[in-house]
Design a protein that fits this description.
alpha+beta; Transferase(Phosphotransferase), domain 1; 2 domains; 13 strands; about 25% strand
Length: about 240
């Protein structure tokens, strides 16, 4: 592990010196970079508008500010109860991503994370290395029909994560990404963790299925039908039986 922790006036920054050799609080703001653009996308793929691409090609980063969803988010918005440095959302996600990337899982490599404490509460941010030439699954299936082999490979890729005990708290058609070679990547591991096999595996599959049906409602011309989901499950269970 190459992590380094630096204390700040009201919190701490965790980072990998092999990726960013010098870090400062300004790097967690849009103004702290020579180039910054807000993440946008069709079919609500831009999330809550809390994510930016920062830095310049060839190495760009993704800066994400942690935001709450649901009814709680309408009140607290981006604040979380502080229960200790190692339990902050950003540090937990950074360390999970670091472990997964070290084991050659298709996840973003974590660069830096921070938390800023304000009394009982804290806010948090994370910076990851941008994966080149990826699009969300929702965009990938909006352009043209994908064959059986793709859906089966998607199921097999999900099984690879599940076999490693990787629980993704929000596996949806936006956080599942596809690169130019058709390989599957997984983004946004907030509240993710490593778990023993269990009912959560089926639950995450069901969450992805609901997400695909939801975006089909947004765009009925989307190239997704019931047969595609059956192909995904075929790939998933074939991969699980191949051990």
């Amino acid at each position: 592990m190459t992590e380094t922790v630096e204390r700040t006036r009201n919190g701490a920054i965790l980072y990998d010196k092999a990726i960013i050799n010098h870090i400062s609080p300004e790097r967690f703001t849009a103004e702290g970079w020579p180039h910054s653009e807000i993440l946008t996308g069709p079919l609500r793929s831009a999330g809550r508008g809390n994510t930016r691409y920062v830095g310049n090609v060839p190495r760009q980063f993704v800066l994400r500010h942690y935001m709450r969803g649901g009814l709680v988010g309408k009140v607290l918005r981006d604040s979380y109860i502080f229960s200790g440095e190692d339990l902050t959302r950003s540090f937990l996600e950074w360390r999970l991503l670091d472990k997964l990337a070290a084991n050659n899982m298709n996840v973003p490599r974590p660069a830096a994370a921070r938390f800023c404490r304000r009394g009982t509460f804290y806010t948090a941010d994370i910076i990851t290395v941008r994966i080149p030439d990826v699009v969300s699954l929702s965009e990938y299936i909006a352009t043209k029909e994908r064959g059986d082999a793709f859906w089966q490979s998607l199921g097999a890729a999900i099984w690879k994560f599940h076999r490693a005990g990787v629980y993704h708290a929000d596996m949806n058609a936006y956080n599942v990404q596809v690169d130019k070679d058709g390989d599957i990547w997984m983004l946004d591991f907030d509240k993710g963790e490593l778990r023993a096999p269990g009912a959560w595996q089926q639950q995450t599959l069901e969450r992805l299925h609901r997400s695909l049906k939801k975006i089909l409602g947004l765009n009925p011309k989307l190239y997704f039908r019931g047969a595609n989901w059956e192909q995904l499950l075929e790939g998933y269970f074939n991969a699980s039986r191949s051990l």
